[in-house]
Design goal:
Length: 692
């Protein structure tokens, strides 16, 4: 059985045998394959012919080290150069918004060249070149090709929340390595929150001393992060979330809160009352010191002030704040927040910074130099662009919510039907994936960021028309392996987590079964995990089965494809039967497993998996004949309703396909056009709750 599971897993997860040119992610703007290949052997080396930017040479060294690990070849420095890298001018050492990232890469059987207007383009070209290393039985090679490439959007970011769960230096660095590999160019560094003040202040050290449990970045470390990012062509935009999400400030400075009293670091998740007092001059005095200090520390012209989810009750309940609002003609909390932002704007302007904030900062008072980060919907981004504001999209890129890659991938900051003039459209600068950290630790964060963020990176870099989901998933599997070679642990972290979870008496078969089930199930999506685990907070270990499970299960996706191919494309149902048989066997073994109390506590999940597989196995042989009756169908659908309940925040993502299988067995297809039959299957299989 174990051998069979392994063979099946291998078959389902092996990477399709495509040329490395067809595996590129993000897809370049223009790729022309040419016959032939440039051999990569021990004589292979690269010559830097551009001047004035040591970053390119460092990037070449990193690439050759990784190629060395993969090929087993020791690349020598003194060999005859086969790749020439040239650029017209060095890019500024600290990356800037809108700099030219274009490049041309040409590979012939006798050599290769990279040409770029500036050295940042050379860095992007190297990210492409690295992905092109290919092999056949004759050895390693680069496929001959002509590539001309440039990004669609200038702002391609990832927001990293290092506050709710502390994420130390090694997480930040390996995340930057992954970003560079897929040509992302902005690290949005979310460093203050209710749950932690994660950056050293020299003007007000009490802020980090009392607000961080000792987990914060020193300014020296921040400079190290900025340098590490810049070395990879990545900007660092810091966020100080104001005036809400600010409990950790108030631990040391309760006097600037909107309600008097003592404050403690928040441990729970949610939207909380503590809010800075916008009517108190002490608030601005502190912010003037702190933001001035941060403006000097972070070289990027943008400084993110948060601005999201101001809870508002402290403002409503304070007689002094209400009196201030009346006196200043401020009619709503939104007006008061705009007043606050205008004061912050003065501080930023004085320090030469441009404001960016979440879409709540959009207000008639907001100066047009500010930029909007839309998290609540693309509409606010479009509205901002119409009003003259620049902006970036994050709505639809919330990777913390564990949605499938496809959803993020198809989410476009500038969809073809958007009602904007060219001038307005040019204000949409790109987007950012957001890694909020309620449910991630350094051990699990990679599996929430990667590989899905690579698909978002492609949406932001590649031409709009690049949207084929099958092709994206195929290339994402390749990219995922490359990302692990960079030091990311989205796959390699799972086995040790499961060993710890299973306990010392777990057998290899137990571990194999747990691995299979963890590869099938997914964490619940959206904000459901908090409802499933209402008592979890910052102090709760995130070492459960759900933490080993990952979003967008490739195994479940493959089964869904097998089912839909059998139902709608005339393929055999046999692969479905084989898959469900294996999954049921693993679930059945785990149902009676008592290797650890934690495994035993997951029995309801294993029960559900087994029962769903059993229903699928009962339905499968009847798919052709369609002779099950409606009463049977209703009974199975009703059981599947129950089985769709998550257990401990884990759910079975392929269950809707089993519903289609069940419905298909009771709908004879003779005399009905296939498209109509499919429509009926889909309509009847959709649960009532999902139709509303
Ligand atoms: C946010 O998700 N509150 C920006």
């Amino acid at each position: 059985m174990i051998a069979r599971i392994s063979a099946l897993l291998l078959a389902m997860t092996s990477i399709a045998n495509a040329s490395s040119l067809e595996n590129l992610m993000p897809v370049p703007a223009n790729v022309k394959p040419v016959d032939g290949a440039l051999p990569v052997n021990a004589d292979f080396t690269i010559a830097i012919e551009g001047t004035g930017d040591p970053r390119v040479s460092a990037a070449v060294d990193r690439m050759l080290a990784r190629w060395g690990a993969r090929t087993g070849l020791a690349f020598r420095k003194d060999a005859k150069p086969l790749v020439a890298i040239r650029w017209n001018q060095p890019a500024p050492p600290i990356p800037t918004l809108g700099e030219d990232e274009s490049y041309a890469l040409e590979i012939t059987p006798t050599g290769a060249s990279i040409d770029a207007p500036n050295s940042t383009g050379a860095l992007r070209a190297l990210a492409t070149l690295e992905q092109l290393l290919d092999a056949n039985t004759d050895g390693w090679f680069l496929p001959a090709a002509k590539i001309e490439d440039a990004p669609r959007f200038p702002w391609r970011g990832l927001m990293l929340d290092v506050c709710r769960h502390w994420q130390p230096m090694e997480v930040v660095k390996r995340t930057l390595d992954g970003m560079a590999a897929v040509k992302m160019n902005v690290l949005h560094f979310h460093v203050t929150e209710d749950q932690g003040f994660r950056i050293e202040s020299k003007t007000h050290p009490e802020l980090h001393e009392q607000g961080s449990d000792g987990n914060f970045f020193t300014q020296e470390e921040v400079r190290e992060i900025i340098a590490y990012a810049a070395e990879r062509g990545i900007r660092v935009v810091p966020e100080f979330d104001l005036p809400g999400h600010a409990t950790s400030w108030l631990v040391s400075h309760p006097e600037i809160g909107s309600k008097s009293g003592n404050y403690a670091i928040e441990r729970r998740w949610g939207i909380f009352e503590p809010t800075l007092d916008p009517t108190n001059e002490q608030t601005y005095a502190l912010l003037d010191d702190f933001l001035g200090e941060m403006a000097a520390l972070f070289p990027d012209p943008f400084l993110h002030i948060g601005g999201d989810e101001v809870e508002g009750s402290q403002w409503k309940e304070s007689a002094a704040i209400q009196a201030f609002m009346r006196e200043h003609g401020l009619e709503s909390n939104a007006d008061l927040q705009a007043h606050f932002n205008s004061r912050i704007q003065q501080i930023l302007a004085k320090n030469g910074k441009r404001m960016i904030g979440w879409d709540e900062i959009l207000h008639p008072e907001l100066p047009k130099t500010a930029a909007i980060q839309s998290w609540r919907g693309i509409d606010s981004l479009v509205a901002a662009a119409k009003q003259g504001y620049s902006g970036i999209l994050s709505n639809g890129y919330y990777i913390d919510l564990c949605h499938p890659t496809a959803d993020h991938y198809l989410n476009d900051p500038l969809p073809p039907d958007v009602d904007l003039t060219d001038e307005e459209a040019a204000r949409i600068l790109g987007g950012e994936a957001t890694m909020w950290a309620e449910w991630v630790t350094p051990e699990t964060i990679d599996s929430r960021i990667w590989p899905r963020t690579a698909a978002i990176a492609e949406r932001l870099w590649s031409p709009r028309e690049v949207r084929d989901l099958d092709d994206m998933h195929r290339r994402l599997a390749v990219t995922s392996r490359r990302l692990e070679e960079l030091g990311l642990s989205h796959v390699s972290s799972i086995a040790p987590m499961l060993r710890r979870f299973a306990g010392d008496s777990a057998t290899p078969a137990d571990l194999q079964n747990l691995r299979l089930v963890s590869d099938i199930v997914e964490p619940v999506k959206g904000y459901r995990r908090g409802k499933q685990q209402p008592h979890a907070n910052q102090l709760t270990p995130l070492t459960g089965f759900v933490d080993a499970a990952r979003p967008d299960s490739a195994l479940s996706r493959a089964l869904v494809r097998q089912i839909d191919d059998a139902l709608f494309s005339g393929r055999s149902i046999q692969p479905v039967v084989e898959t469900l048989t294996l999954w049921k066997a693993a679930a059945d073994a785990l149902r009676i497993n008592d290797s650890s109390p934690r495994v035993a506590a997951m029995k309801p999940l294993f029960d559900r998996l087994s029962e769903v597989c059993a229903i699928g196995l009962e339905a499968a042989p009847e798919v052709e004949s369609g002779t099950k009756d409606a009463a049977w169908r209703q009974a199975q659908l009703s059981t599947l309703d129950t089985l769709s309940e998550p257990h401990d925040a884990c759910e079975l993502p392929f269950l809707p396909a089993i519903r289609r299988l069940v419905v298909a067995t009771s709908l004879p297809r003779q005399d009905i056009p296939p498209a109509q039959w499919r429509e009926q299957v889909e309509a009847l299989s959709t649960p009532a709750a999902a139709k509303r």
